[in-house]
User: What shape does this take?
Amino acid sequence: MRSLNLEEIDDLCVGASILGGGGGGEASWGRALALHAVERGRELRLADLPELPVDGTVFIVSAVGGGTSEETLRSLAPSLDLEDPVKLYLEPAGAAVSGLSAFLGVAPVALLPAEVGAGNMVLPLAGAALLGIPLVDADACGRAKPEISVSTTRLAGLSILPLALSTPIGDLSLLLEARDEDRAEELVRKMAVMAGGGCVVARCPAPVRAYRSASVPGTVSLAQRLGRAVRSA
Assistant: This one.
């Protein structure tokens, strides 16, 4: 297990942007979330799966976009602050994790990124830091992806449900059952649209041992090393 400083976060954002092909969230809000956690005295920790208790529970946490209309944005103002990434992403992430934990009656020992991307790798890292737990050095795709149902967890047979969804305007929902993962994806996207274009989801609660075959290991470190190489070039 190791800690990341802000220079390493910058490297991570650059490398994740490259590996994600530009998807997976913006580097600017990713760094802002990390800085928010550091300014509150929290440690940005990264752990390999073998370092975690095999029976401990891991959640995947990510922001989900959906687009929206000007009419929806007007109806949500002034509740929605589109300029503050902490309110848009980090606070909803905390609410989603808390909601899923309360439903399950268990707290996660770590969070895991859904994809490779500057925003969606740093969001769960900062969220984990505020909870006092590490981020797993892995992700559930190996690249950025267009849908939350595009996931190594699906290939491994891990259910996306139950999931908790939180919005930046204070909504918190639990989705316990859906026809299939594509239907769950559709429902989450609809909520993102209604929330002004985005929400945060905590999902795929499963033990550490299950994620050993349901995630792509080492992708956070890979992104950081790539970003460091760019900086040093």
The radius of gyration is 16 Å. Residues 85-104 form the longest helix (20 residues).
